[in-house]
Amino acid sequence: MKLLLDECIPHRLRLHLAGHDAYTAVYMGWNGIKNGRLLALAATDGFEAFVTTDRNLEHQQNLATLPLALIVLEAASNDIGDMLTLVPNLLTALSTLHPRSVTHVR
User: How many domains does the chain have?
Assistant: First the structure.
């Protein structure tokens, strides 16, 4: 699955998502782009899911208009150590993900 990691996600997390093509917004040259435009770019570029820690994003954007899923990581912080504890649950969520859905990973 082709994943876009939001700027708030440590780039090293992508190395722990075996079996998935994970890119960061910074790597794509999309840093600083606001959420609505960022999601539109991701959808246009063939991303299947957007991974973020922004718990408000699902309430701020009309996700039904985009062909990708939203995954909200609910870690204690954006520190890589806190994020790594979520990887097993994230990988499980990715295996059953549907377009236009919102999944919270704890």
Answer: 1
Q: Is 23 left (phi over 0), alpha (psi -120 to 50) or beta?
A: beta
Residues 6+ apart with CB under 8 A from 11: 5, 24, 26, 27
- The pLDDT-based confidence of 101 (bands split at 50, 70, 90) is very high
Phi, psi of 52 (to 5 degrees): -145, 170
Q: What is the pLDDT of residues 26-47, one digit of tens each?
A: 999 999 999 899 999 999 999 9
d(CA 89, CA 80): 15
Phi, psi of 89 (to 5 degrees): -70, -35
In the predicted structure, residue 69 carries a pLDDT above the cut 90: yes
Residue-number span of the structural domain to which 51 is assigned: 2-105
